[in-house]
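INTERNAL TRANSFER SHEET
From: sequence group
To: structure group
Subject: HTH gntR-type domain-containing protein

Please process the attached sequence and return the structure record in the designated field. Keep the field labels unchanged so the import script can parse them.
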Amino acid sequence: MKATRKLRIEQAADAIINFIKVNELAIGERLPNENELAEYAKVSRSTLREAVRMLVSINVLEVRHGSGTYVGPGPNETEDILNFGKIKKPLKLVQDLFEIRYLVEPTMTAKAARYITKEQVHELEDLAKKIENSIVNETLDHLDYDIQFHQVIAKASQSIAFYNLFPIIYESIVQYNKKYSSATIKEETIISHREILDALKKGDEIAAFDAALIHIINNRRTILD
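Return from structure group:
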């Protein structure tokens, strides 16, 4: 990412945080729509989306699919709390992030199968369809939907610890999509998300654990190969 674009994204993130502070928005309150925020921050919608992703990664914002963007529980700052931006070896970062996902995400997904609500299942169904349509039509918004898909699962686990580990999951998705976009990987994404969703719908903790584990193993294998 060029320095000037990165600066615009950071400035947009600062503008969003300023909007939250000036309007004294509390956790859980909804922000204006994308067009209004982009106009407020004086940036393009694509730059605004990147800024929103950045703030979602540190829990400053929360995107609720079909509803909007809300103030999250995280710190009111744009600091890279996990210092990913300082790492000079992106491939090593991706490998290490998937190692953490390997240890954490299957258990988180199994726990989500135990506690997931009907509303969250419907949300995941809608997101899974949008991911598939985006991949089939070769549009770029499948990454946003993918991140939201995993965020809903993290929230469904009803674990504060798991939910706050979401930045790790988020960053691995972002880094992974930067480097790997073959048809095989996209097909695997569609299949694995279907299997995860099917297990969650059934409330099957073992199947949910296995589906998440297989998803991560397949992604890791691609990197290591």
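Handover comment: The chain has two domains: 1-71, 84-224. The chain has a mean pLDDT of 83.
Transfer complete.
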